[in-house]
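User: Could you write out the 3D structure of this protein bound to calcium ion? I've included everything you need below.
Assistant: Certainly. Input first, then the structure.
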Amino acid sequence: MTNKITSYLDLAKRLAREAGMYALAEQKKVLQIERKTNQFDLVTNVDKRNEEFIQSEVAKIYPDHEYLGEEGASTKTTSGIRWIVDPIDGTINFAHGLPIWCVSIGVEVNGEIECGAIYDATRDELFSGIRGGGAFLNDTPIQVSKITDPGLSLYVTGFAYDIAKNEGKAMERFEAFLKRGLLVRRLGSAALDLCYVACGRFDGFFENDLSPWDSAAGKIILQEAGGKLTQYDGSEYSIYKKGIIASNSLQHEMMTEIVNSV
Ligand code: IPD
Ligand code: CA
Ligand code: CA
């Protein structure tokens, strides 16, 4: 863990917190909501403002770094350092007034996510992780659960916006868990799903179709908390590929078997 990475994490934490607090205040007002790719895929004025805010704050301090954000902001440089940002993860929940959404900021250095921060303003919970330095919830170290018995476990999944057109066996996978008598939730924020596995609230998470900004920060937070992430086929997880299995490590094999049973 270098001083540079620590500085990136400090900035990510500050910006996630500031953007989250702004969003929480705005959620109580009338939001401007637009549709993106289809009727379910929404964007609000707050997603857009947070994207601009985070990008411009990063650029002020690190003008040579790259930026990749969900709402279209993207810059390319030769620095090898990329800020990967979801200005609001859980936009549907946010737009409907539900308290399950967050701001997610991950920092990738030469292709590896080195640190990340995820802030849930509704609960004042700041999750963070830094390679080799641990994972934290509001500065208290966190760890994945030690539960091995699926019957005592709680899992979470998510569904892509284009599920009606491109279902990709998401429902069959959901059903496969339920038919084995296992408990599965769907919260609507993949970044929080990963944090909740990291701190032991859930024992595992799986989803067909994530984008880099959904899992960039959550990846390092979960790894540092002792969790395991792979693609569906068991290969090393990349935020740029589809299909994630994330677990407390102990149940990874069992989850992989169920996900691939359909
Ligand atoms: C979505 C959420 C949701 C997941 C979707 C994501 P957004 O992100 O993380 O939980 O199931 O796949 O697209 O659109 O709210 O930022
Ligand atoms: Ca997202
Ligand atoms: Ca988003």
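Residues 70, 86, 89, 190, 213-214 surround calcium ion (ligand 2) (CB under 6 Å).
User: Perfect, thank you.
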